[in-house]
Amino acid sequence: MYLTQSLHRSVQQHPDKVAVRFAGRTRSFREYADRVARLAGALQRLGMQPGDRVAMLALNSGRYLEYQMAVPWGGGVLNPCNIRWSAAEILYSLEDSGSTILLVDETFRALVEQMRGQATSLREVIYCGDGAQPAGMHGYEALIDAAAPVPDAARRDEDLAGIFYTGGTTGFPKGVMLSHANICASGFAALGEGLAPPGSCYLHAAPMFHLADMGLATPHWFQGSTHAIVPAFSPEAVLNAIAADRVTHALLVPTMIQMLVDHPSMREPRDLGSLRCITYGASPISEAVLNRAMEAFPGVEFAQAYGMTELSPIATINPPCNHTAEGRKRGKLRSAGRASYCMEVRIVDADGTEVPRGTVGEVAVRGPNVMQGYWNKPEQTAAAVRDGWMHTGDGAYMDDDGYIFVVDRLKDMIISGGENVYSAEVENAINQHPAVAACAVIGIPSEEWGEAVHAALVLKPGQGIRPEELIAHCKTLIASYKCPRSVAVLDALPLSGAGKVLKTKLREPFWQGRQRGVA
Questions:
Q1: Is 204 helix (H, G, I), strand (E, B) or coil?
Q2: CATH code of domain 420-511
Q3: What's the pTM?
Q4: CATH of domain 5-394
Q5: What is the pLDDT of residues 124-142, one digit of tens each?
Q6: Can you tell me the distance from the alpha carbon of 427 to that of 484, in angstroms, rounded to the nearest whole number?
Q7: What residue ranges of the chain are covered by domains with CATH 3.30.300.30?
Q8: In Å, what is the CA distance from 170 to each residue of 93, 164, 504?
Q9: Of 146, 361, 407, 438, whose CB neighbour count within 10 A is largest?
Q10: Is-contact 219 191, C-beta < 8 A?
Q11: How many Å apart are CA 253 and CA 205, to the nearest integer?
Q12: Is the pLDDT of residue 169 over 60?
């Protein structure tokens, strides 16, 4: 299995079909493949050897899509950089991976110029923006024009395809090593689940550096779908792209869905009739937000993909049939689905022993999607992957039908007065209040309870709410000990580059100078 195989197949079977739509420009599969082969040749001329890491720091674009195929085509290894990171974090990922070539666009050009002298592994920088070529950098289009197409190096199976750095919630980020077989296995599972049917147009709205987007794009490459792209997520950009490019499938993380359905642009007249399915994942979604989304997009199917970067990234799928009225009656709507093809999932205790159905434990996954390990971190690899099982750190239970219900990140679980409180359950209750647009629940220090439940809210425009009102609302839905004991209203929640809420940022002011002695 190898990532570029799908491109060969598409060129053979439908070379003149539109492969990419971006910024009013279209490229056929024949044109796209030619540019990929030329970029691969240009990278080789710049010194890329088999297995060399090539990084990219840029917003979404057609050139980003070319980078994702050209690097493995030329024999290299992908290292997509997180666009939301600080210069220190980006520099760390470049140095830690030993990246020798970096592609950068106009948005991050100044940042790269500032830190280039500190990036000792970097030999070459390619400017892939549309403006004038900066001094000391190669021009992207000039490189392609001057290069001859080269044969596909056909790195495959267990060959390293990419190093994908995780968020780094503690210390510096970890580089997740994924092989061609890892990513392809996850892609084939999604294809088998029906997430990329024939005739699709997939929208890259999530950041392309993140494996969530690449993970769902992979089955669309297998299917020979058209790829539409927006530079960065915004409700208006997504709605315009759906209408203009006749998008059928999109991946949106829950925060994006919430921003989309609550945005005034949703009320503007547009033809969104092409849209067939929205897949959500990367973090839990509240039932209230999901209900608003299903009302905003009547006739559109919804599916959930659960996993993590270390799983390439998919482990389970909750299909559209569980998002219907019948699915609700079966109690499967809040599930994260069940093991997808070629993958095993079980819920285990601290010793790795499977727990009884209905009992909360840790999600463990085994299959061809499990990472090769963390780059240069053998001890952390051994702690995460034991006997072939990836221990995810997510707390969940499994029902009698094999569906898992994620209750929280184990590290996010709040222990208040000796009781386990799962933040996702509290967030689901809070989000059902009509004044709340988004929320995040964390544990904060409490002399009386050890930890107290704290809610950070973002309200809908023109809305207000008193803490006691929100707490009373929660008490009608969940046990009193789970309800917030304090409430803060914020202008916005801190988000990662992938759209996940950064609870570490919310916790910082409360836990500074303290040794957190509870989970």
A1: strand
A2: 3.30.300.30
A3: 0.85
A4: 3.40.50.12780
A5: 999 999 988 999 999 999 9
A6: 10
A7: 420-511
A8: 15, 17, 9
A9: 438
A10: yes
A11: 10
A12: no
